[in-house]
Amino acid sequence: MNASRQVDPKWLLPGLHYFIASHEGNSQLCKLGLRLNVSVKEQQCQSSPLVRLCSGNGVCRTSFWEDGAYRCQCRQHYSGKFCEKFDACLENPCENEGVCVSNGTTDHIHATYKCLCPPHFTGANCSDVIGRENCDRACRNGTCLQVSPFSFKCVCYTGHPVHYF
């Protein structure tokens, strides 16, 4: 026996619903009727019906055992309720324990970040040791060498004095 029943959308609001369909024939199989327990979950993956699910930057998911609604699971670098925020700091591009601060844009093309460098470090990604530039600039007749984490010396060519920075 093949049959289908259409359920009126007014009965499918979020929540738990019970349906019973009985058969008016002599079939012993359907004497007790068909009982369905339908759980309808709210979909919370769009800010409005005109916007793509999860802003196109994730997937709308729920767990069978979870009581909550469908929610966005964002792709890498995206966050926010609807995966609308791009995070340029997700993989921490700052070196030497620098702190990454994202500009918080929703546009990954214009996403920028800034590294707040710890003492003794500078540069876009905190990769440059402060003092190295002074050594490079002053060391005209030799080679600048790092002798400890934060000090340098100019190893001069023959006949020129040694300078420490």
Describe this structure in words.
- With 165 residues, the chain is mostly beta strands.
- The chain folds into four domains: 32 residues, no CATH class; 40 residues, Laminin (Ribbon), CATH 2.10.25; 37 residues, Laminin (Ribbon); 34 residues, no CATH class.
- It is built from one helix and 13 strands.
- The strands form six sheets. A three-stranded antiparallel beta sheet has the order 11-12-13, covered by helices on one side. Strands 1-2 form a two-stranded antiparallel ribbon.
- A hairpin with a 5-residue loop joins strand 9 and strand 10.
- The longest helix has 7 residues.
- The protein is rod-shaped.
- 13% of the residues are buried.
- The model has no long low-confidence stretch (mean pLDDT 79).
Put the structure in a nutshell.
The chain is mostly beta strands and 165 residues long. The chain is built from one helix and 13 strands.
Indicate the low-confidence ranges by residue numbers: none
Helix and strand element order? EEEEEEEEEEHEEE
CATH class of the largest domain: Mainly Beta
Sum up the overall morphology in one term.
rod-shaped
Number of domains: 4
Largest sheet: 3 strands, antiparallel
Q: Helix fraction?
A: under 10%
Lateral arrangement of strands in the main beta sheet? 11-12-13
User: Structural class of the helices, strands and pairings?
Assistant: mainly beta
Provide the CATH superfamily of the largest domain.
Laminin
Average per-residue pLDDT, rounded, comes to 79
Strand content: 25-35%
